[in-house]
Amino acid sequence: MLWHGAIMFIAAFFAGVINSIAGGGMLLVFPVMIWLGVDPKIANATCTVALWPGLFAGLFGYRREMNDSSIMLMRLGAISVVGGGAGAWLLIATPSLVFARLVPVLIFFATILFMVQGPVNRWLRLPSAENESTRRGWTVVIIIQFFSAMYGGYFGAGNGILMLAAMGLLGLHDIHRANGVKNFLGICINGIAVFSFSIAHMVLWPRALLMAVAATTGGYVGARMAQRVGRVFIRRAVVVIGFVITAVMLWRMW
Q1: Is residue 27 a contact partner of residue 114, using CB atoms and an 8 Å limit?
Q2: Quick one: 108 exposed, middle or buried, by C-beta within 10 A (0-12, 13-18, 19+)?
Q3: Do 145 and 83 form a contact (C-beta atoms < 8 A)?
């Protein structure tokens, strides 16, 4: 229906704006798809495809801050593809009824992750400790990134904060460089998820492409207005939306 398309376009546009300014756009567009009657698994897969192109714009924006990151990109990128693929196929194997019951929990978890992004960002601005990456070890970070990527392939909202925390353990305290690496890893995770969902025929392509155009446009608008719109206000609004959606979905289930 025409009005369904209009609602999805508007939701994806504002999701792109939110992703550009503060992140968390998935918490807006995914519930809208469910409200329109789309199966939760199909909605999740379609939203993943729709919001994936925006990650490339974010990566391009941080390209100058990513010098000397090749080792981190290769190691964490490889584990991100493996973990993202595992999460995507776990979603494919999950019965729709089970996933529908998990949705409120996933949205609540993503909202909590979104809430703690500020403290983690402040932690990442601390001076880098000498040899911190050697002291703490790559093994722990790779394990964290694997499960973060697995969660990203399965649902994904709020996954960025888990990746930022893992990079903090490596002593990467430059927030701009960390965000650039995070966008690259997000491309790896969602890229394998998009491929997996496509061959499993879980993507509503007309809706995904419509929302991709809207989200990309919103991301461009958001980038231009980021200095004029309060980031704190946007973040608080996303958190409120996340909690309200969680409460409404739990109420509908019971």
Answers
A1: yes
A2: middle
A3: yes
pTM: 0.81
How much is the mean pLDDT over the chain? Answer: 81
d(CA 118, CA 124): 10
pLDDT at 166 (0 to 100): 76
* Concatenated DSSP letters of 43-100: HHHHHHHHHHHHHHHHHHHTGGGGTT-HHHHHHHHHHHHHHHHHHHHHHHHS-HHHHH
Coil/strand/helix, residue 172: coil
| CA 221 centroid distance within chain | 19
Q: For a pLDDT cut of 70, what percent of the chain falls above it?
A: 82
Q: What is the mean pLDDT of residues 238-254?
A: 73
DSSP 177: H
Q: Quick check: 27 and 242 in contact, CB under 8 A?
A: yes
Return the structure tokens found at 91. Answer: 């979603």
Handedness of CA 95, 149, 232, 26 (dihedral sign): negative
Tens of pLDDT, residue by residue over 189-240, are 999 999 999 999 999 999 999 999 998 888 777 766 655 665 666 667 767 7
Quick check: 106 and 157 in contact, CB under 8 A?
A: yes
